[in-house]
Amino acid sequence: MNFDYAFAWSIVPDLFQGLLVTLQVVILGFLLAVLLGLLLAIAQRSKNALVQRLSYGYLSFFRHTPLMVQLYVLFFALPLAGLTLPAISTGVIGLGLYYAAYIAEAFRGAIEGVPAGQWEAARALDFDNATTWRRIVLPQALKPMLPVLGNYLIGMFKETPLLAVITIPELFQAAKQIAGMTYRYNEPYTVMALMFLAISVPTSLLFKYFERRSHV
Amino acid sequence: MLFDASTLDTARFIARQLANGALVTLEITFFAQVVVVVMSFVIALMRLSPWRALRWIATVYVEILRGISALVLLFYLFFILPLFGITLAPMTTGILGLGLTFSAYGSEIVRSALSNVARGQRDAIKALDFDAITAFRRIILPQALPFMLPPMGNQLVELLKTTSLVSLITLSDLTFSGGQLITTLGQQTLIWSIVLVCYFVMAWPLSWLVKRYERRVTHWRRGVAP
């Protein structure tokens, strides 16, 4: 079986459409995950035991179950709850909820890395709670987070083929459809793998560069 | 009566199906982990070797496998290798695909743990004229292991979760059993939620053990009692 370059070239536009959907879901899902992750990390430091428990339970449940099955549950449970969303939104929510659990853990570490003296100084200067978080703690915690967030962004990108199982027309689904229609598997999957590499390798190099620069 | 006989029968049917699936999931996890451990050491040692060619091959291996996702690799092995005349059983495909993907991450864990062993230890090995194998087995590895095991354990939890992907290449694991139950019974939300809980029940104790071990081997570093 040989590799037909002309055919491979002809399917690039279709796969590119899929790639765009993939990128869209990843970026929106990532934003949701960062926001929710931050909230969860702050909730973990709450003095309210119930809030702490709940966020801990959230983290351990989402970290110990497969994303694919979570997506299945969301896909079927959201309509039951009266929320009929397009598949893409379900994908964004699914990725966001799952990665929030991981990102929260990273945020927690970064927040714990802020020296206790900073908290004490903020209290001595009579800053209220919200200002302390917003102006003192988070700016210091976020800087070392950048490379970590980069890794999660790439990780999310690589998990997107899973979204095909809930009928989102992303890159993997596009390749599968072409393969199913033409009975040619080699070209669609190879072009797809190359597209994945073409995005993830430069992104990983970019974040490595940021990391090196911030250490200097 | 709260439950009639047919409800109980259905519950028993669901439990049996999911238990069979869970066994397959554990089986795949076990064998894939064997591949992960072996390949992680091979690749890590290649990356630490003095020969540039070996280092280069290992780097390419890690970068490529980390760049494409496990699912893409599984589909590649499952659909494209047969076109080149290599047909693997679905089970072998699943074990190899997951094992190779996770070994790329595992080799980084092994490599950093091995290179964490203090410089003086290596000098001492040379001074005492140990041969390479004895030195690795008796000096380097025992010191590297406590650094290696916790991240390896966390990775095992990830592997267990990721085995759900093999349901897409027709292996009847826990996720696949869930799908089959839905084709016979419907009740998507209920069944998928039960499947989620099954994964949680398998993965959580594992990560609890890892955390316990980690606390034990690092308590001296934090200067508190275990």
TrEMBL record, chain B:
Q: What GO MF terms are annotated?
A: transmembrane transporter activity
- Entry keywords, A to Z: Amino-acid transport, Cell membrane, Membrane, Transmembrane, Transmembrane helix, Transport
**The keyword RNA-binding is annotated on this UniProt entry:** no
- Specify whether Acetylation is a keyword of the entry: no
Q: List the SUPFAM superfamilies hit by this protein, alphabetically.
A: MetI-like
Query: Domain of life of the organism in this record?
Result: Bacteria
Classify the protein's membrane topology as the record does. Answer: Multi-pass membrane protein
PANTHER family, sorted: L-CYSTINE TRANSPORT SYSTEM PERMEASE PROTEIN TCYL, MEMBRANE COMPONENT OF AMINO ACID ABC TRANSPORTER
Name of the protein in its database record = Ectoine/hydroxyectoine ABC transporter permease subunit EhuC
